[in-house]
Amino acid sequence: MERLHQWKLALTEAANLSGYHFSPGYEYKFIGEIVKYVSNKISRQPLHVANYPVGLQSRVQQVKSLLDERSDDGVRMVGLYGIGGMGK
């Protein structure tokens, strides 16, 4: 019963949050303002890249060949997946 009460409180709090209101104009500017606001709120950790990465060149070549960067016939998409913290 206590858990249900906590859920109700959390949902009520979420429902009462105010958001951004888009007024007529350029949508890309509106989205840019939201991105700027969120970026200022999050803590950014610098990305560490090894001084001498090992084994990347062959992987880069594989991805390049799959994407066929010279081709001009459409959109390409790359998905990266795996266990968090493994350096994808």
Automatic annotation (TrEMBL):
Which Gene3D superfamilies does the UniProt record give? P-loop containing nucleotide triphosphate hydrolases, Toll/interleukin-1 receptor homology (TIR) domain
InterPro entries recorded: Disease_R_plants (IPR044974), P-loop_NTPase (IPR027417), Toll_tir_struct_dom_sf (IPR035897)
GO BP: defense response
What is the protein name stated in its UniProt record?
Uncharacterized protein
